[in-house]
């Protein structure tokens, strides 16, 4: 467990308080489970601090992560009704981005991914959210649908105190370079190796 | 992302459905971040499925994970009020277990840890919860406060459909042996290395 004691104190001219409050860019990568789940676990903390949360899922499947989505939508409703915690917006590429009127974007994943990123970049510029989950965002980067250099620039130059968590395998080195927190999840053992299929309450 | 297709089909005499519904024992270990956060992310899915959730935290600090606790307590209240999701119980060793009347257990961590495990073992026998998070439970195992062989026996022989997630560094090999899902979190880069301290909404 972290004890709050930095290993080294950098010569960056910042006070401890400034450093403490520096917004975090985190990347969860590697072939193991838990990349997205850990991101949503972090979002629970953000919610409890009253942070405005924006989740952007760059996946096609509607089935997976329905549990996290339902729980966060419930937390978002609780915020609207009682003021507890923070606001929650949950956007999915799979069904066409909610802000988009384009029909048939689901037929063109590359265009949909680029549109999603452009919207996120706009929101970051406007400081629309305080905590962003860019779920499985490494894949459009890997497939060349979204420009890595543009992402690195927008994320590393983002204004204010916006925290960003990016999840997915094979995160590009340029992104890891500018990230503050990089965790690799490694699969040691998985039930599917033993012939099990995914099950409700565990995989979704 | 898992596609639901097992790599191998074992010769265990079970149907795919039986295997699919086999309760999961998961262990999140390794030196990186995300072990507990991923467990709480899994618990979000369990909550959404209406599973009764029991969280048992084997840590002393009250500060860390207060965000997850607040969010899950909110989800538990939502369940009580609207029937949505599942029930949530959250127990902490740090403040003395809520079910315990013993004064001063906080002075004897070994006894408190053993008491916590004994209660969990009773609940598992009674099938009290459907989804257990044994947070940072590897430490009392490591320090010899709780008997590893007893834990392995109770967990591997647990009745019904109870899912269990154990988190913490240095999980004992005997536990990994009986686990269905083992993920190791590896630290690649951490803001505290760069002289930052923990901050609200991120570390708690």
TrEMBL record, chains A, B:
Keyword Transferase attached: yes
Highest taxon of the lineage: Bacteria
Gene Ontology biological process: cobalamin biosynthetic process
Keywords from the named record: Transferase
Alphabetical list of Pfam families matching this protein: CobA_CobO_BtuR (PF02572)
SUPFAM superfamilies recorded: P-loop containing nucleoside triphosphate hydrolases
A molecular-function term among this protein's GO annotations: ATP binding
InterPro entries to which the protein is assigned, alphabetical: CblAdoTrfase_CobA, P-loop_NTPase
Gene3D superfamilies: P-loop containing nucleotide triphosphate hydrolases
PANTHER family: CORRINOID ADENOSYLTRANSFERASE
NCBIfam families assigned: cobA, PRK05986.1
Protein known as: Cob(I)alamin adenosyltransferase
Organism field: Rhodococcus triatomae
Species classification: Bacteria, Bacillati, Actinomycetota, Actinomycetes, Mycobacteriales
